[in-house]
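Write out this protein's structure.
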Amino acid sequence: MSAVNDLDQKLAQLYSEKVTVNLDAKSTLSPNEFWSSMELIAINNKAVINFQTKRIA
């Protein structure tokens, strides 16, 4: 479970420091779309960690 807690702490720090996203001027991706995709990646990673820790136990 410490892996899940470590991930939660890293995500909390990432979101607390969120001010802007440094996107290339030519990018068609908005900062909100970027953070939405990062949130999906984080949720997926957390689910994988939870699955692995439950499978081991």
